[in-house]
Write a structure and sequence with these properties.
By secondary structure, this protein is mainly alpha-helical. The protein is built from 5 helices and no strands. The chain has helices at 4-19, 26-47, 50-62, 64-80, 89-106. Helix 3 (50-62) runs parallel beside helix 5. It is elongated, with a radius of gyration of 24 Å.
Length: 128
């Protein structure tokens, strides 16, 4: 299941690896990044159906880092041949749950509010 877009992304990355990081003017570098980003968006458009793409766009509005992480996981799955056909919204939700479960095991829950109540003789009903 070799897509022409996937082959183009690989060719672009191989070209970058052979060039190294030196000597490219910023205009060409920016053009390459724009072209890679466009190829990435096109590939995601072929992978995701409309509802899943809409959900990923909403996630990107709230948390751009998380959306990039999900996109990277989806692209790796395509490159490894783990995806067969298009990803639907329920499949994307399942992937999000798996990612959330893996992250919650690795790090403690952030932002939990703990109430510490006073134990003792501070009661308003006591009349002395």
């Amino acid at each position: 299941m070799e897509d022409p877009e996937l082959a183009a992304i690989r060719a672009a990355r191989m070209g970058q690896a052979s060039q190294g990081s030196g000597g490219a003017p910023s205009g060409e570098d920016q053009a390459k990044r724009d072209a890679e980003e466009q190829m990435r968006r096109d590939l995601l458009a072929t992978i995701l159906d409309a509802a899943a793409r809409e959900r990923l766009a909403r996630i990107a509005l709230v948390s751009p880092d998380r959306a990039q992480q999900i996109e990277a996981i989806l692209l790796r799955m395509v490159q490894a041949g783990q995806l067969r056909g298009r990803v639907s919204e329920p499949q994307l939700i399942e992937l999000l749950d798996q990612i959330d479960g893996a992250q919650s095991k690795a790090a403690p829950k952030k932002g939990a509010i703990v109430f510490q109540r006073r134990k003792g003789g501070f009661d308003d009903d006591d009349d002395f």
